[in-house]
Specification:
CATH topology: Heat Shock Protein 90
Structural class: alpha+beta
Largest sheet: 6 strands, antiparallel
Distance between the termini: 27 Å
Number of domains: 1
CATH superfamily: Histidine kinase-like ATPase, C-terminal domain
Radius of gyration: 15 Å
Shape: globular
Strand order of the largest sheet: 1-4-5-6-8-7
CATH class: Alpha Beta
Length: 150
């Protein structure tokens, strides 16, 4: 696992090869992780949320969403994944990439799981906790981006 301050790229690429421009001056922080590093991922995400000025009362829900998506990345996507975090205006942006991909029949996480489900709730929960969630998947992997208000 590593944590690096990455020089801000002009664009981030996602699993489909599409690019997202970053606002100028954005500091991007990055951590790569595997399943055993998930506690460190939560600590990393919490640290950067606090540094960005997220209200303490909002950090719990934010961490639930980050944990669900990060867990999915390393249990369903690939053995290693990457999380990037940066500020964009009044939002904290989380971008998680893994090298796995699939072709979903419909956008995942749009329908509530059954009442007695024991799995399959992560993206549904994350969609409800994030201001916006975008998922792209393709031959170069899967990218999921979430925005949270600061």
């Amino acid at each position: 696992m590593n944590e690096d301050e990455v020089p801000p790229p002009r664009f981030l690429t996602d699993g489909s090869g599409a690019t997202t421009p970053l606002p100028s001056g954005s500091a991007v922080r990055e951590i790569t992780f595997c399943v055993g590093d998930l506690p460190d991922v939560r600590d990393f995400a919490a640290l950067h949320a606090r540094r960005a000025g997220m209200a303490e009362g909002d950090i719990g829900d934010y961490l639930v969403a980050v944990n669900e998506v990060a867990t999915n990345a390393v249990t369903h996507g690939a053995a290693k994944a990457r999380l990037r975090v940066w500020c964009d205006g009044g939002d904290l942006v989380i971008d998680i990439h893994d090298d796995g991909y699939w072709i979903p029949d419909e956008p995942p996480g749009m329908i509530a799981p059954h009442d007695y489900s024991t799995s399959g709730m992560g993206l549904w929960v994350a969609r409800r906790l994030a201001k916006k969630l975008t998922l792209r998947t393709g031959a170069s992997g899967t990218n999921l981006t979430m925005r949270f208000e600061l």
